[in-house]
Design a protein that fits this description.
The chain is an all-alpha fold and 170 residues long. It is 78% helix and 0% strand. The protein has 2 domains: 69 residues; 91 residues, Tetratricopeptide repeat domain (Serine Threonine Protein Phosphatase 5, Tetratricopeptide repeat), CATH 1.25.40. It contains 9 helices and no strands.
Length: 170
């Protein structure tokens, strides 16, 4: 009778591992909604697998967090600008630029948008676009000249003639 119980336990554990694996595949693909569903189904069906339950609950929390981040509703200039800053800080430069373009459509004369766009282009290694945006930002507000001369992100340009000319460092 013990061998039969052990075999049943082993079969159940293998089914649990398979269900966990399927949920993890969706998670790694970035399909957090599907992963969320599969993890919840796992808990319903394999709630006795203590070894995996803690992990599943952690991944469920991550799925919920990531799903809520994807549903961010951006409406105002500040929404687009601050979310652009957030994306920049996380290295998602292309997404940040798209957000900043939308903010710029709302307030085309806002220098901080152009300055941040210059910063992003510098981080991407696109010096021409960087200098173009930086020049426009400084034309709107001379304060950006001081910032640029002290911004570590622009350090690679500090000795560049165009950068010096734009920021009046010559």
């Amino acid at each position: 009778m013990t061998k039969e119980k052990d075999k049943i336990k082993k079969d159940e554990y293998e089914k649990a591992l398979s269900a966990y694996s399927q949920a993890m595949k969706s998670f790694h693909k970035g399909d957090y909604k599907k992963a969320d569903e599969l993890f919840k189904a796992f808990l319903d069906k394999h709630g006795s697998e203590r070894e995996l339950i803690d992990r599943v609950q952690i991944y469920l929390n991550v799925c919920e967090t990531r799903q809520s981040k994807e549903e961010v509703q951006l409406k105002t200039f500040d929404d687009f600008y601050h979310y652009g800053v957030f994306k920049t800080n996380h290295g998602h430069y292309e997404e940040a630029l798209k957000l900043l373009e939308k903010a710029r459509e709302m307030k085309p004369k806002e220098g901080k948008i152009l300055y941040l766009m210059a910063d992003i282009h510098c981080l991407k290694g696109d010096n021409e676009k960087c200098l173009e945006h930086l020049k426009k930002a400084i034309q709107l507000d001379k304060y950006f000249s001081i910032l640029a001369r002290n911004e570590k992100d622009f350090e690679s340009l500090w000795e560049d003639k165009k950068f010096k000319l734009i920021t009046r460092m010559v």
